[in-house]
Structures are given as structure tokens and as C-alpha cells.
Write a structure and sequence with these properties.
about 40% helix; 8-stranded parallel beta barrel; single chain; 13 helices; alpha/beta; two-stranded antiparallel sheet; TIM Barrel; about 15% strand
């Protein structure tokens, strides 16, 4: 199992707690990344949004790609996974930027391909919005450009969405044939695309029995492409590690109090409207991003370690954790859970 964390470029993950003690500043992200780099963490995911969907669209948030590029020379072993959304970016330029950051980081840069869900943000920033299933057709073409640029001396494509003429890219990425391509999605169109074109499938939080069924389904879809290596699997989770049940309940009550703040509720409804999710969402899911509490990484160190082992048994090999305050909880996980899981 590899342990990763979401970089809190939005100032946190709790829609009901306005100040989580982790500001959306580069100074905080830098300190967190450098600390994680030397305390046993493997990956950080820098989500790409131009507006803050956690604290409200008017709140601060950092841009993902410039943040990742700045962190690359300041870390030594941490994988820097950055989201990319085709509605905002040209794929040939993304291929070039990716190769450059991969060199800056010494081969530690990877992509999380997100086909977009927030139309209000896209409209504000001049993105090219298309209907749900068409987004995945565009993403397939986007990925074809990335791979073509990374693996050919000269690449051309005459597509529905992109036209590339005799393009050259040098230097190629450090990682061959390309940096790891992660992606998530729960609609049939998304899952078919990921099984065919990506290297790893990222899931929203859910209990192990639900995740196991999803992994089985994606392995079956991947088996239709026997020329490809097996998919890898990651899952989002929100982690709370405490020594006793009373402490756990107190923390859960604090973070799920929906009366505390509702600034991010409108963008959350946009997410539900713009996605084809396989499960109904609750107010608890609203409180914590990415259905993180459903993964069950809440309890004593022994209980959380056992849940990690259970996730590993069903085929999950990457946990992408959110917690609050991020550094303090990550230290607790590193000191109290890592030794149990890695023994």
C-alpha cells in the first residue's frame, strides 16, 4: 500500500469549518510537501480547480500546475500527481508541460485526468463545455495527443476536437513510455475510457465491499484489452486517528455539523448535477469532500490499520487521504498507523 494525501490548495476539506488552520498559501503547501517527503508519504494529489468548491467560489485557492512545478525541486521522493482538465487546456501544451515538470522532479510527476463537472467555473474561465458523455470522447482524443507527443519523434492528428500537425516534443518525459495516467469516474463512458486508456483508476470513498465490486468491474473492462498491463487502484479517504472512541465521536461531530457553514453548498450541488454518480450522497458526504468518510479510516490506530489491510486485500494499492488539520493528522497517521501497516 502506498500512502498519499491531497494537497490542501483550497485551505481544507471541510465545508462546515471555515478556518481549518491550513491556509491556501504556497508557504503552507511547501512546508507540508517537504515534511511529507521525509516522513514516509509517497504521493500528493494537487487538484485543479480555478474556483474554490470547498470553502466557496469567493475563497482563495492555488493553481495546481504552477504549485506542482514549484514543489518539484523542493522535494526529493514525493510523487507529484496533478489533475488536468481538457476543457481548459490544449493537449500538446500539456504534453510539453508534463515532460518539463517530469524533468524538474526527476521522474516524479504524474497526471490525474479529470473530464470536468463544474459548468459555472468553466463559464467564468472561458472553458469549452460539452455534455457528459461527449466529455469522455474529447478526453480520449486528449489522451491520444498526450501519448502521441510523448512517444513519437513527430506526431499528427486530425480529430474532432484537436488538430495537431507534425508536432515535435523534446525532451521526452523521464518516465517511459509516459508518466502514470490516473483517472476517476463512475459513469459507463468514464469507466470504459479509463479501462482502455489509463494506468490507474481512482475511486471516491466507499466501504471495502463496494470498492471490491468496482475493482472487479474495472478488471473485467481492462481484460478486454489484453495488450495492456493490469490497472492499479486508488481510493480517496478522510482519516481520523484517535486513541479512544469518545475522541473519535467528538471529532466526527465537529466536522459534520452542517449548521456551521454552507458557503460551498451551491458548488456541491453543481458537482452532483454535473456527474453521473453510482450512489446517492448524504449531508455527511457534503460535509467531507470526495465521500471520504465512507472509506472507514476513522478510529484507533489498530482499527485504521486493519481497514488499510482490508483495502489492500481487495486490490487497492494507493490511499489518497484528506484530514484536518492536515499536517497534525498526517503526523499522527505516520507515527501510529504506518508502523502497524508496514510491519
Amino acid at each position: 500500500m502506498r500512502f498519499g494525501f491531497w494537497m490542501p490548495v483550497f485551505g481544507g476539506w471541510l465545508r462546515n469549518v471555515e478556518d481549518e488552520g491550513m491556509p491556501a498559501t504556497f508557504e503552507y503547501q511547501r512546508e507540508l510537501a517537504q515534511h511529507a517527503d521525509v516522513t514516509g508519504w509517497d504521493v500528493t494529489l494537487v487538484a485543479e480547480l480555478n474556483l474554490n468548491d470547498i470553502k466557496g467560489p469567493e475563497a482563495d485557492c492555488l493553481e495546481a500546475w504552477t504549485t506542482a512545478a514549484a514543489l518539484a525541486p523542493l522535494t526529493k521522493r514525493l510523487e507529484l500527481m496533478t489533475a488536468v482538465r481538457p476543457n481548459f487546456r490544449l493537449p500538446a501544451l500539456v504534453a510539453k508541460e508534463t515532460a518539463t515538470i517530469d524533468h524538474i522532479s526527476g521522474g516524479r510527476f504524474t497526471l490525474n485526468v479529470v473530464s470536468a463537472w463544474w459548468q459555472a467555473e468553466s463559464d467564468q474561465y472561458g472553458g469549452t463545455w460539452v455534455a457528459h458523455d461527449e466529455r469522455y470522447a474529447r478526453t480520449a482524443e486528449f489522451l491520444a495527443v498526450l501519448k502521441g507527443m510523448w512517444t513519437n519523434d513527430e506526431f499528427s492528428l486530425e480529430g474532432r476536437y484537436y488538430t495537431i500537425k507534425n508536432a515535435r516534443l523534446a525532451p521526452k518525459p523521464v518516465q517511459r513510455p509516459w508518466p502514470v495516467l490516473y483517472a476517476g469516474g463512475e459513469s459507463p463512458a468514464a469507466k470504459d475510457l479509463i479501462a482502455r486508456e489509463c494506468d490507474a483508476y481512482l475511486m471516491h470513498g466507499d466501504p471495502p465491499e463496494v470498492l471490491s465490486a468496482k475493482i472487479g468491474d474495472m478488471r473485467a473492462r481492462r481484460a478486454k484489452h489484453p495488450e495492456l498491463p493490469p490497472l492499479r487502484f486508488g481510493v480517496a479517504g478522510y482519516a481520523i486517528v484517535r486513541q479512544g472512541e469518545a475522541e473519535v465521536k467528538k471529532e466526527l461531530a465537529r466536522i459534520t455539523d452542517v449548521r456551521a457553514s454552507a458557503r460551498g453548498y451551491a458548488s456541491y450541488l453543481d458537482f452532483i448535477k454535473g456527474s453521473q454518480l453510482e450512489t446517492e450522497v448524504s449531508l455527511e458526504d457534503y460535509s467531507v469532500s470526495n465521500r471520504g468518510l465512507r472509506t472507514g479510516l476513522v478510529g484507533t490506530p489498530d482499527q485504521v490499520a486493519e481497514r488499510v489491510r482490508e483495502l489492500e486485500r481487495i486490490g487497492v494499492d494507493l490511499l489518497l487521504l484528506q484530514c484536518s488539520p492536515q499536517r497534525e493528522e498526517m503526523d499522527r497517521i505516520g507515527q501510529e498507523v504506518f508502523p502497524l501497516v508496514r510491519a
